[in-house]
Hints:
Distance between the termini: 23 Å
CATH topology of the largest domain: Rossmann fold
Shape: globular
Strand content: 15-25%
Helix content: 25-40%
Order of helices and strands: EHEHEHEHHEEHEEHEEEHEEHEEHHH
Bound molecules: uridine-5'-diphosphate-4-deoxy-4-fluoro-alpha-D-galactose
Radius of gyration: 20 Å
Number of strands: 15
Largest sheet: 7 strands, parallel
Low-confidence stretches: 367-381
Amino acid sequence: MRVLLTGGLGFIGSHTAVELLSRGFEVEIIDNLKNSKLETLKNIKKITGKKPKFYKTDLLNKSALDKIFRNNYYDAVIHFAGLKAVGESVEKPLSYYRTNIDTTLNLLDIMKKYHCKNLIFSSSATVYGNQDGVKLTEKNQTGIGITNPYGQTKYMIEQILKDTACSDPEFKVTILRYFNPIGAHYSGLIGENPNDIPNNLMPIIMKVYTGEIKTLKIYGDDYKTKDGTGMRDFIHVVDLAKGHVSALKKSLKTNATNVAIYNLGTGKATSVLKMVKTFEKISGQALNYEIVGRRPGDLAKVYANPKKANRELNWQAELTVEDAIKDVLNYLLKPAADLKLKLPVARPHYSISKAFSLLGLKNPLVKLGAHPSRTQKSTSV
Length: 381
Ligand code: UFG
């Protein structure tokens, strides 16, 4: 089975490539490398022993896309590519609508032209809008109270895909609604490393740990949750990647339904403060944080009811938040470990950066660009 991954060098795309390759799928990747790096391809090969065929192509370039499909047959496409920074989408809405929607329309046109009839789409829990504290099922309403253009594009693309499937009973669409992906591959070779200033909690925690960001701002401790901070359904990226494999297998087999929608989450919510405390415990380093006011548009508690995916995909998240933190730390420390640098030990009263400076050393972790695997940016989901 040959699968094309758009945005396949991004955070979730690269982990999915690894899971597919290690199960015998043939994988090809399109990525514009605008916000990802070619080194990820090498690291996928290091992990799996297989190097996917790669096209440095922008999905906005329809003729280039046409050429790829003219010369190759794909059993399915997994569509990860797109812009995904929530804050940036508020500042540059037209760029988000243009990029996310036009690229999807181009892909659908070309798939139709070359009779490729199976698409898995990276959607997001953001389509559920402002439903707070509800264990969200796929039947919950979508499209109401979405607070940013990024989220709107996910919702709109879902509609486009449903209409496309409706017009062609042979065209199969699987919509995967992700909750909050965190973690890294246990090899430490691929993980999340946004180039720009990150918005999401875990990349910010990572940069506070390495000393690149001084303080983590915790947005609000007055929510109606156990400790007052927001709660989210954090899912290990490897579990999420495995969810794609299960969804793909099902969609390649079944001829029952041509639109399938699944929540990919754990069903458990962890608070921001608990995440910080767990990270401190596992890393042995205190994180500098302060409680500030709520971030506009944030909800108190967002979590999935993943039972449909558990039942129909025979899939469930197996890894914990602790596993994700250990893998993130391994990913962060790997460049230094590869250089056989003996890392100083952080203590609760001083950070790892401080430990380096006490030894008169420059903190190598601050130069995150130093490691070839540090490639994940905002364009590939
Ligand atoms: N948070 C902080 N400080 C920060 C960053 C985040 O306290 O510096 C808190 C937020 O207030 C929230 C939690 O950490 O309570 C998670 O925030 P993220 O920004 O990591 O994630 P969101 O839940 O806001 O949104 C994410 C993705 C969206 C996706 C959504 C799905 O960014 O793309 O999950 O639930 F749609």
